[in-house]
Structures are given as C-alpha cells and as structure tokens.
C-alpha cells in the first residue's frame, strides 16, 4: 500500500474546467464515467443495479452498443467474473455495484483479487454526499471497509475529478503489482453535470517509468547462481503477470536449474518439462519440498513466501541463500529476508539474468551445469522414491482419476478454474498445465465459490475455448446461482463437481489432526445437481461408478451449452503429500494407510 500512497500524492489531476451545473448541454457524472471507461478500452462490465447507481445504469443502457453489461445474480459473482476475465486475458476486469449491500457483497471478490494480484476496477454507488455519515439507507463506508484489501480506493467528491480518477484507477490496477482499485461514486456526483476533462491530457508522473533491475545486483545474482551446487528456482504468479514464461524457460534450460512453481505459478513453466519438480508447499511434491529443504540457493521470482508454501518460516529452506525478485518492493523481506533483492518486473529481471549469464561464456556455463550433476541425481532419486500417486478402485471413482481423464479428454488444452479445497489440489497436482493463464484459481484468499463465476468471466473472454470449473459440492453451493448468468448470456462453461458429500478438505484435516471428529462437514443433504442444472436451463450429467466416468465426462464436455457434470467420488479420499500447517518439509506426510 505504501508505494501507492506516494503515487497518489504525486498524481497530477486532470485539467479542471469550471462547473456549469445549470447547463443541460454538459455531460453528467454518469456519462463521464461511461466515456472514461470506453476511453480505457473497456467493453465488458459485470454488475448488479441498485438505487445509488441508477443514473449510471440509465446511461449504460444508452451506451449498450459500446459497453456490454452482464447482469449477475450476486455481486460476489460479478467480481469473480471480472477476475476470471482479467486472469484469462491480462486485461483489467470491471465491476459495477450499488452502495451498502452491493458493496459488501463485492468485498470477498475484492479481497480475493488483492491477494492474487488481479487487476480489476470496482465501481460502487454511494449515497448522495449530504447523506454520507448519517446512516442513510444502504450506506456503508465503502472506502473504509475496502481500504485494507485494495491497491487504492477513491470516494469521488467532485464530478470534475471523475474522469481523472478513472484513468488513474486503471493505471494503478494494471501497473506494478496488479490489484483491485475501488471507485465509490455518490449518487449526486453521478447526476452532477460538468465538462469532463480531456481524457488524453491526464498524465502520471510514474507512467513511463519501468522498474528495471540494477546491473550490480544482476551480476551478483549470476555469481551466486553459477557457483551454487543445489539451486532451486521457486516461481509464482509474477511469471504470468509479467509474461515471463519464455524467459524463465530459457534461463532454466541454459543453466539446467530445477524449477518449482507455486499454485499461482502453475503453467508459468510447463508441468511436464524435465526440469520441473512440480508444485511446492503444503500439497506440493515430495521432490519439490525436499529440494527446498536441501537447497543452497533459492532463486525466488514473483512469489511472496506465502505460509502455505513455507510452513514454519524458521525451518524453511534452512541451508539456502535467497535471491528474491519482485516488482513490489513491499513484498521483499516481508516474510523472508533475502540475501539479495532485485525489485523489478520478473521478465525484465530474467532477461537481464539471461544476458549476464551469456556474457560469462560457454565455459562457465558448462562448468556450472557440471557442478550440479550430483544435485540432479539426488532430485531424480526423490522423484522415483515418492512420485505423486494414488490407489485405484473398482467400485469408487477416484478424484485423481477424474482429473487425469479430464486432462486426456481436453488434450491438456482447457482453461481450468477451481474453487478451494481438495478438488483444487487434485487439479493442481494431476492436470499438467502448460501455459500461463490456463489455471485460474483462488490462491491467496482461498475463496470457496470462486470457480463458477471465474469460469464465466474467462469464457466471456474466450468464447471458443473449453472452460471448465472444477469445484467441490460445498463451494459450488456458494455461487451456483451464477448458472443463470451463464445460461442467459450463452456462455457454455462446463462445471465439474467433485462430489464427495463433505466439506472435503476440512474433513481431511479433522481425520488427520482432530482424531476423526467430523464436526459440521457433512453435506449429504444437497440438491440433486442434475435437476438443479436442468432447472437453470443447463445440461445435467452424473457418474457414480468408475465404469461410467469416461462416457459421462465426454458427454458433459461436448454438451453444446452450459453443463453441470456431477461426479460422485470416493468420500474419504485424502490429498497427499501434506505438510501439516506450521510444520516443515521434513514433516511431510506422503501417503495414508492403505494407499
Ligand atoms: C468462503 C469460505 N468458507 C470457508 C472456507 C474453509 N474451507 C476451505 S476448504 C473447505 C471445504 C471445501 O469443500 P468442498 O467445496 O466440498 O470441496 P472439497 O474439499 O470437498 O473438494 C472449507 C470449508 C473457505 N475456504 N472459503
């Protein structure tokens, strides 16, 4: 937040023109907002109307040929759709909701976007200025309640600031470490008239400035990397955000460095590449976690040392020196103090590292590779010793099989969104993602209910691609009303419910760490998901036996419209490996009895 505050103080406001409130010829705040959005290239808005945004909705109707509004069924869905759209495309997702409950319903999505560095702009209505602070109908302090989970937010007090604020908001959302920006517009401001500022005249002192890596730091990093015997490249969501996947692959291949992605980093490095160790962290692979535990040098790029990755910080990578590359200086040293920090865009840093390595010459590169041959022997040993595995079953559908089957049927090409829970981890482990923006999941906040609306947003961006939401029976019931949105706009998402009749991930923890006391995790009373799908006008499919799985999945995936595929899986299957919360990699539990 701190760097943004500085930006705010230095931002040059748009040239203001005198208010002429009486003049009917001048545009209203609502019109100004629409023009400013169009100027930013926005053609898609997810939203839900209400009293405080009626002027804006009225104007939106007139602008419907230029801006398409998608009416959701709950404001949380609107924000997740905007996130899905932004994560699939790299563009800024846009949301419009009303004051009070509209804003509070949007809050979960805003926090989700903040933790996953997703660029969105959320426009909220507010009560008229003279009623602010009076506990007026549908009044909440939106700026106050969103402050801790936005990159920046605004209460627009003067219609003359509106155009400049919109420009600034988009700039902030998409630059540096991307994130959510909220613009709160009182109803009377959206009605007030003024000549809007010439949008192309708004300037930002930092807009042309790129955060480039310092050559001294790059050179020291290359020294350390070339000399290291047990290095690991630990990469996260920053790879997708800075389109650094090509540079990352070239860098890893040149020095033959092992790579482990976080959940958010999956796809940033091809999952089937011989240099990948698979995901690290709580449900990471044995090889990835052991490599971190034994590493002498962590090259951390676009990551934030999240506790689901590090476990107990004091024992995380105990022998490693750390190089941390991050575009957000506030992220560096937040959890782990690095030995060397490079505050820069991940791609620029990788390009600089790559060219520095090349200048060192063939000989140094070759001897550095040779230095690490024993390290690769050790890694291959771990991989053979404990690969990701699970036992098959003749009478129950195993969730890991479902994901493998899904991978085969989609030829590994689908965009996959997920909810949060066991199914999310199985998708991460068993669907080999090959490119950035292919997996869209709620990593930081861990928001159940994310998967379905995020899939709708991604499908809207790519109408011809196969977009599949892999969800649990719990999370699905948090946002399944958005089936109506998908059907209304003919967005043919496929929803794969991994139905275990439980809040599976919580049940697993209760089984493993609370003596099998299954407290309040039973979801055996749930709707018939096939009938529910049909009630919404979607296709409904169900498999309960292993011999049905292939055909049911294939039929559901090739269904023309929206489809819900209910797969009844083994109820008490667990996700392995697991590093218990707060433990370290060496405490990893790799399999359960009988598996
Ligand atoms: C909104 C929200 N509430 C609670 C949780 C805590 N939580 C994490 S996983 C989980 C269980 C999810 O169950 P389900 O959606 O059925 O997926 P499964 O784990 O069975 O695959 C819960 C309750 C959460 N992540 N998000």
Break the fold down into its secondary structure elements and pairings:
Elements lengths: L1 H9 L18 H11 L4 E4 L6 H9 L5 E4 L3 H15 L3 E5 L3 H15 L4 E7 L15 H5 L5 E4 L6 H13 L5 E7 H5 L23 H13 L3 E5 L2 H4 L3 H11 L3 E3 L24 H9 L2 E5 L5 H4 L10 E6 L13 E4 L2 H15 L1 H10 L1 H13 L13 H11 L5 E4 L3 H9 L8 E2 L10 H11 L5 E6 H7 L3 H6 L5 E6 L4 H10 L15 H7 L3 E5 L2 H13 L4 E6 L27
Parallel strand pairs: 1-2, 1-3, 3-4, 4-6, 5-6, 7-8, 7-9, 9-10, 10-11, 12-13, 12-14, 14-15, 15-17, 16-17
Helix pairs in contact: 2-3, 2-7, 4-5, 4-19, 9-14, 11-14, 12-16, 17-18, 17-24
Bound molecules: thiamine diphosphate (TPP).
What does this structure look like?
With 595 residues, the chain is α/β, with parallel strands linked by helices. A 6-stranded parallel β-sheet has the order 2-1-3-4-6-5, sandwiched between helices. Helix 18 (422-430) links the parallel strand 12 and strand 13. The longest helix has 15 residues, at 75-89. The two termini are 46 Å apart. Thiamine diphosphate (TPP) binds next to helix 18, helix 20 and helix 22. The site of thiamine diphosphate has 19 residues, from helix 18, helix 20 and helix 22.
């Amino acid at each position: 937040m701190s760097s943004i505050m500085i930006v705010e103080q230095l931002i040059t406001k748009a040239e203001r023109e005198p208010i002429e409130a009486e003049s009917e010829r001048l545009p209203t705040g609502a019109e100004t907002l629409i023009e400013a959005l169009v100027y930013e290239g926005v053609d898609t808005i997810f939203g839900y109307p209400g009293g405080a945004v009626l002027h804006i909705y009225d104007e939106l109707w007139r602008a419907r040929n230029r801006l398409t509004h998608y009416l959701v069924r709950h404001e949380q869905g609107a924000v997740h759709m905007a996130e899905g759209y932004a994560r699939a495309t790299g563009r800024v997702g846009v949301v419009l909701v009303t004051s009070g409950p509209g804003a509070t319903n949007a809050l979960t999505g805003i926090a989700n976007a903040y933790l996953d560095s997703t660029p969105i702009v959320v426009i909220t209505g507010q009560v008229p200025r003279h009623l602010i602070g009076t506990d007026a109908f549908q009044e909440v302090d939106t700026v106050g309640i969103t402050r801790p989970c936005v990159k920046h937010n605004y209460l627009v007090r003067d219609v003359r600031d509106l155009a400049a604020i919109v420009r600034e908001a988009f700039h902030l959302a998409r630059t540096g470490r991307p994130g959510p920006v909220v613009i709160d517009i009182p109803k009377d401001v959206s009605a007030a008239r003024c000549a809007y500022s010439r949008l192309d005249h708004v300037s930002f002192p930092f807009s042309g400035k790129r955060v480039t890596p310092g050559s001294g730091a790059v050179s020291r990093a290359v020294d350390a990397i070339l000399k290291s015997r047990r290095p690991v490249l630990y990469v996260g969501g920053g790879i997708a955000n800075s389109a650094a996947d090509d540079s990352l692959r070239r860098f890893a291949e040149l020095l033959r460095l092992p790579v482990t992605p976080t959940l958010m980093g999956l796809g940033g490095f091809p999952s089937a590449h011989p240099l990948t160790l698979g995901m690290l962290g709580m449900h990471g692979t044995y090889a990835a976690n052991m490599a971190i535990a034994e590493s002498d040098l962590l090259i951390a790029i676009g990551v934030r040392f999240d506790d689901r990755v590090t476990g107990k910080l004091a024992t995380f990578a105990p022998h490693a020196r750390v190089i941390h590359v991050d575009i957000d200086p506030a992220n560096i040293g937040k959890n782990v103090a690095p030995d060397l920090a490079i505050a820069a865009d991940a791609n620029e840093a990788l390009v600089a590292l790559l060219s520095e390595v090349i200048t060192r010459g063939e000989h140094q590169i070759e001897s550095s590779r040779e230095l690490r041959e024993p390290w690769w022997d050790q890694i291959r040993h771990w991989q053979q010793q404990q690969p990701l595995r699970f036992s098959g079953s003749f009478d129950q559908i195993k969730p890991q099989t479902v994901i493998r089957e899904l991978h085969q049927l989609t030829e590994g090409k689908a965009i996959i969104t997920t909810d949060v829970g066991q199914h999310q981890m199985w998708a991460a482990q068993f669907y080999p993602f090959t490119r950035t923006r292919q997996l869209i999941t709620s990593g930081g906040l861990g928001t159940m209910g994310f998967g379905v609306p995020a899939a709708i947003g991604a499908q809207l961006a790519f109408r011809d691609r196969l977009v599949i939401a892999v969800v649990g029976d719990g999370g699905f019931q948090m946002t399944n009303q958005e089936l109506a949105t998908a059907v209304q706009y003919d967005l043919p998402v496929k929803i794969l419910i991994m139905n275990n009749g439980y809040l599976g991930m919580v049940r697993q923890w209760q089984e493993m760490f609370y003596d099998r006391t299954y407290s309040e995790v039973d979801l055996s009373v749930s709707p018939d998901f096939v009938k529910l799908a049909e009630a919404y006008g979607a296709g409904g499919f169900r498999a309960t036996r292993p011999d049905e799985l292939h055909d049911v999945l294939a039929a559901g995936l090739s269904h023309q419209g929206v489809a819900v595929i209910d797969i009844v899986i083994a109820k008490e299957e667990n996700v392995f490996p697991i590093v218990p919360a707060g433990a370290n990699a060496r405490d990893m539990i790799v399999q359960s009895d009988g598996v």
